[in-house]
Amino acid sequence: PVPATGPGRPTRRRALLVGVNYFGTRAELRGCINDVHNLHSLLTQTFGWDPGCVLVLTDDLPGDRAPTRANIERALRWLSEDVHPGDALFLHFSGHGAQKEDPDGYEEDGMHETILPADFERAGMMTDDQINDLVVKPLPEGARLTAVMDCCHSGTGLDLPFSHTGHGWREETNPLHTRGDVQLFSGCEDEDTSADASGAHGQAGGAVTTAFCD
């Protein structure tokens, strides 16, 4: 039988995969779209997710499938919309990450962690607080979100209340607790930069995505 979260409501899977190569700019990368393709294959071919429940934003796609800030925000709202206990969500971002000053002083290091949409020079960066508001805070108890952020400065990229130090779990200063079950696999710590890697066929890609898919 199909497990249900309510009368006539089977559990649901949704995934958002975002890859930004920043074509034609000084910030151009080579492997981010490859990362998305590899994770898409992992979800749909290895784990049997329906391709219809996977939304892909990459900058070789036109219109509302391009990874602009507006499209990413819209897609994050779609990911967390009408989520019920038992639903499984997956979020992946591969691209540039950065930091910006936290004017409110809530961040322990005084800096927000950010991701850079394809149009970041015009539309600005997206902070960890903003991403948390869109996709973490709305989750009900019993819903599960797994995230992979393959970008620099991504250690607390979703502003989750706990992080693993290698020696155990540590509660963040001014933690943002959530009702949902959320896990983040990040490419590096907040103060570090993420690494590149090559896949099985020599394709460029991010190290954490390559390791995750392997």
Strand and helix layout:
Blueprint: E1 4-6, E2 9-10, E3 13-19, H1 32-46, E4 54-58, H2 69-80, E5 88-94, E6 97-101, E7 111-115, H3 120-123, E8 126-127, H4 128-136, E9 144-150, E10 162-164, E11 169-171, E12 181-186, E13 196-198, E14 204-206, H5 207-213
Structural features:
alpha/beta, five-stranded parallel sheet, three-stranded antiparallel sheet, 29% strand, 5 helices, globular, 214 residues
Q: What sequence of helices (H) and strands (E) makes up the elements? A: EEEHEHEEEHEHEEEEEEH
Assign the structural class, choosing from mainly alpha, mainly beta, alpha/beta, alpha+beta, or little secondary structure.
alpha/beta
**Oligomer state of the chains in this structure:** single chain
Count the strands?
14
How far the N terminus sits from the C terminus, by CA atoms, comes to 31 Å
Overall average pLDDT: 84
In spatial order, strands of the major sheet run: 4-3-5-9-12
Counting DSSP H or I runs of 4 or more residues, the number of helices is 5
Description of the structure:
The chain has 214 residues and is α/β, with parallel strands linked by helices. 22% of the residues lie in helices and 29% in strands. The protein has 5 helices and 14 strands. The strands form 5 sheets. Strands 4-3-5-9-12 form a 5-stranded parallel sheet, sandwiched between helices. Strands 6-7-8 form a 3-stranded antiparallel sheet. Strand 3, helix 1 and strand 4 form a beta-alpha-beta unit. Helix 1 runs parallel beside helix 5 and helix 2 packs parallel to helix 4. The longest helix has 15 residues.
